[in-house]
Design goal:
alpha/beta, Arc Repressor Mutant, subunit A, D-Maltodextrin-Binding Protein, domain 2, 6-stranded mixed β-sheet, two-stranded antiparallel ribbon
Length: about 290
């Protein structure tokens, strides 16, 4: 009999590429991951990994087991969802991951609705950049989360996850109201307000500026869009902001639509769509497009 926890580690190795990365994702030591994978090989009765020094690669049998392993993990999620649906009322935890502007505009009303409808459901919200949500879902640190992509930064959630669309929005260039700029290229020498490195917003801004023929000069690094827009209004720089962040726009800011869009989706583990808590969360979100 194959151990499901070890099977999950093998699937993660296929996705992440190294034992060190799998260990980091699960807060294990690399030695512990190696021992678990060796135990899985003994259970399978066939070599699953090819080891060359410190490097490992999946054998043909390993790749086959990963393929079936993803099916097994999905079936387990479906089983858990079916059992939860058989209970009376929604109980237990629902761990949610989302980015700040969505928490303020979309999730707060949804959480209030869920709390009123399902008082026994323990809602746990974590602020998280969309780029970090897929790994948190796979590692079972989250049950549901908001993921994003831009036209200029396409992203796939990858194996083991599925998602449903939530929001498709315009992306703007935010400049001071008295600025004469009309395009990105006009701001090649401006000071820019950028999100933190590694975030999706940061990457999207770099891609947009690169397409316009320049690299933005970072003047400030700020993740909160409310602060970003206040700095723009004060003449402290320019920034790329999505439509969702422009509610309550300061009077000193002018928005210029850019030829790219941002899409937000609700993501969860493959097989969890029928889980009543996940379904209730999606149903509570406002019907935006």
């Amino acid at each position: 009999m194959l151990d499901v926890r070890r099977l999950r580690l093998l699937c993660d190795l296929s996705r992440l590429g190294t034992i060190a990365a799998v260990a980091s994702a699960h807060t294990y030591t690399p030695s512990a991951v190696s021992q678990q994978l060796s135990a899985l090989e003994r259970e399978a009765g066939i070599a699953l990994l090819e080891r060359t020094g410190r490097r490992v690669a999946l054998t043909a049998a390993g790749r086959l087991l990963v393929q079936h392993g993803e099916t097994v993990l999905t079936a387990l999620e479906q089983t858990g969802a079916a059992l939860a649906a058989a209970r009376t009322g929604l109980t237990g935890e629902l761990r949610i991951g989302a980015f700040p502007s969505a928490i303020r505009t979309l999730l707060t009303p949804a959480l209030i609705t869920l709390g009123n409808r399902h008082a026994a459901l323990d809602l746990q919200l974590t602020e998280l950049d969309p780029a970090e949500v897929p790994a948190a879902l796979r590692d079972r640190r989250l049950d549901v989360g908001l993921v994003q992509d831009y036209d200029v930064v396409p992203m796939e959630t990858g194996p083991g996850l599925q998602s449903v669309p939530l929001l498709d929005e315009t992306v703007h260039l935010a400049v001071a109201a008295d600025s004469a700029a009309g395009t990105l290229r006009d701001l090649s020498r401006a000071g820019w307000i950028l999100a933190g490195p590694g975030t999706l917003c940061h990457t999207a801004t770099l891609k947009l500026c690169e397409a316009a023929g320049f690299t933005p000069r970072a003047r400030h690094r700020v993740d909160d869009f409310g602060t970003v827009l206040a700095l723009v209004a004060a003449g402290q720089g320019v920034a790329v902001v999505p439509q969702l962040a422009t509610a309550g726009l300061p009077s000193g800011v002018r928005l210029l639509p850019l030829p790219t869009r941002r899409r937000t989706r609700v993501a969860f583990r493959q097989g969890a769509a029928a889980h009543p808590a996940v379904a209730a969360f999606i149903a509570a979100l406002p019907p935006l497009t």
